[in-house]
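Sharing a chain and its predicted structure for anyone who wants a worked example. Both blocks are below, sequence first, tokens second.
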Amino acid sequence: MVYNYNHNNNSTHMYNIRAYSVKEVMPALNAIAKVYSLELNRVSDFKIARAIWANTLREIPGIW
């Protein structure tokens, strides 16, 4: 069974975050790092910032 999670072709979903390059995502990650006082040169902090960024792309069915 194949599920089509992309109901709206114009929206960005968490399922395709790997399609972004680091160069495209760095402005957003830098902003997140500044707000949460994270150091992006630490792997653990980079992963936290990336998770926060990915959650901003997520659509919640029934709300969006």
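Comments welcome. The chain has a mean pLDDT of 78.
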